[in-house]
Every structure is written in structure tokens, then in C-alpha cells.
Amino acid sequence: MKAMILAAGRGTRLLPLTATCPKPMVPIAGRPLLEYSIRLLAQHGFDELVVNLHHLPQAIRDYFGDGSAWNVDIRYLDESVPLGTAGALGSLPDEVLDKSILVMNGDVITKLNFRRLFEFHHAQGGDATICVREYDFQVPYGVVEINEYRAARIIEKPLYRSFVNAGIYVLQPEIVKSVATGMQTDMPELLGNLIDSGSHVNIFPVHDYWRDIGRKEM
């Protein structure tokens, strides 16, 4: 099975940590952030990985090399100009696109069973599967619902729940091939256009451990 890890971000939300260290190499409990994803992918049978690079790319190449230390084959795609989370797909070589591919953000740590995700995607059929995570947000104030200039109801510190994009996807080859080489676009835009066009896009709720490391407060 094949996967692409999006590791070209500059990590501006993690400054000053990322001033001299690419975001995927930020240490988490003694290991680079990216290593957790590579280890988990290898554990679940992914043996061909593509990693796109932009900010301080040599540090990533020097540490992971060809991936043989983790029993995977890693190839790198250098982006002279960042293309966005979906624009990177346009640089994938054709030989990688003979079957569905997993794409994930490089600033996510998870214990998701990727093999189970692939089984779900193939069982459901369709063009793409988006992993989603339930997110709770409690307003720390009383919310006043209004009807024109009259108060209709007061709700004290309401709790709102919604599903958010977990930054992990499975895409069919034709979806990846629809992204032109050098095109700048992000995954929400690509998938949003698919949904608007009536394409079959699944959602896969993530109940396993999942954490976005793209912000210092996380």
C-alpha cells in the first residue's frame, strides 16, 4: 500500500521552534514528529511512501534517508514554491497512482488503524474518504438567541459538537490525477469541489488517539 505524507509546511504557528528545524522534525518524546507516522504506516503494511518537502528539506532527508531503517521505501518531492495540501498531489509520479493512495498531514500524531481505513474505503466505494474527528467546544458565556431586537432564549455555556477534518484521506487515482502539475490548492478546496459536483465522498470517524501538533497549544 502507498501513502503520501504532506511535510512541506513552514510551521509558522510553531515558531520559534521551526526557525531552524522543519516542522516534521520537531521532537516529540525524543523522536521527530514525522517518525511516528512512518512507523505506524509501516506497521500497517504501507511500504511505499512519498514525502513532499520545502522548508529545510535536507534535515528530513538526512534523518530518514531511503526509509530502509523503517522497512519502507521513501521518495521525496521538493517544492520550490509551496503548492498547498492538495497541490502536492500534482507532482506524484504515475507509477504511484496505480491504486488508491492514503494522504495525511505531516503534523498529525495518531494511532489510527490505516488498514481498517483502507478496508472501509474499498467497501464503501466512491472517489475519496475523509477522516473526521468529533470536536467539542463549550462557549464560556451565556448565549443569547435573538429574534430581531428581542431576546428569544438564553442558553448558559452551551456545548457544541461537530466533526472536523482530521487531515487524513484516501483518494482514488483519478482524483489525484485531476490536480495539474504546479497547481496551488488545498485539500478542503479539492474535496469541497468533489462534494459540490455530486461525487461520492465518504467520511470515516476517528475514534483512536489523534492529535494535531501544528500549534504550540496542542
Q: Report how far apart the termini are.
A: 30 Å
Shape type: globular
- Estimate the helix proportion, in percent: 10-25%
What is the arithmetic mean of pLDDT?
91
Q: Compute the gyration radius: what is it?
A: 19 Å
Percent range for β-strand residues: 25-35%
Please, how many helices?
A: 6
Oligomer: single chain
Could you say which structural class the secondary elements and strand pairing correspond to? alpha/beta
How is the largest sheet built, in terms of strand order?
A: 5-4-1-6-11-8-12
Describe the structure.
- The chain is an alpha/beta fold and about 220 residues long.
- The chain is built from 6 helices and 13 strands.
- The strands form 4 sheets. Strands 5-4-1-6-11-8-12 form a 7-stranded mixed sheet. A two-stranded antiparallel sheet has the order 2-3.
- The model has no long low-confidence stretch (mean pLDDT about 90).
